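testing teh design pipeline on a random one, pls ignore if ur not involved
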């Protein structure tokens, strides 16, 4: 699997894995956070979760399209990937240090902006860095697997962190830090895609 030996592609995969774990830590256990962290009643928590999902989704979609367009026009994929990961990370840190429904609503918007931009621009960056033209589909599968693996690992890690400390702050803080770290890993990429 020569693609894993490619320096730039390897950093891209590792960064996407970390970013996706960070995002999953911010989204995977939100219902439990509403119930047991913010002490909402079951009906209220379900309504709150629906609102958070709508806010998150609207911002994911909008940020994906807008950041993708900016990336296509400017070619600054690495800077946009890092910036979007930082925005995503800030969302987790906001909830960790100021847990309330209002800050969670604000964080849902930030997480949506960061994640939407990160996934669209990061995927464009991945296509720029594909190491072997004859194996593009296979290598894009690795990009997809890195995100899917992060989605799988996030809630498991999150549950462990919640159990470890008996609360949710550590889970959101770790999610924020992993998101930012995943974006910063992009800076290790040596081959810079040409700026349009």
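output:
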């Amino acid at each position: 699997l020569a693609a894993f030996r490619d320096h730039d592609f390897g950093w891209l995969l590792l960064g996407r894995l970390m970013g996706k774990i960070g995002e999953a830590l911010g989204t995977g256990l939100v219902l439990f956070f509403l119930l047991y962290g913010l002490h909402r009643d079951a009906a209220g928590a379900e309504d709150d979760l629906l609102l958070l999902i709508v806010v998150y989704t609207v911002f994911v979609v909008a940020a994906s399209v807008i950041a993708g367009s900016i990336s296509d026009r400017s070619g600054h994929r690495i800077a946009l990937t890092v910036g979007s990961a930082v925005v995503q990370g800030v969302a987790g840190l906001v909830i960790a240090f100021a847990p309330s429904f209002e800050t969670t609503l604000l964080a849902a918007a930030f997480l949506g902006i960061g994640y939407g931009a990160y996934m669209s621009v990061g995927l464009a960056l991945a296509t720029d860095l594909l190491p072997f033209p004859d194996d593009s589909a296979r290598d894009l599968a690795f990009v997809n697997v890195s995100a899917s693996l992060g989605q799988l690992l996030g809630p498991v890690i999150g549950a462990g962190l919640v159990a470890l400390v008996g609360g949710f702050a550590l889970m959101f803080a770790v999610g924020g830090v992993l998101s930012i770290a995943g974006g910063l890993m992009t800076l290790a990429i040596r081959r810079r895609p040409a700026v349009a």
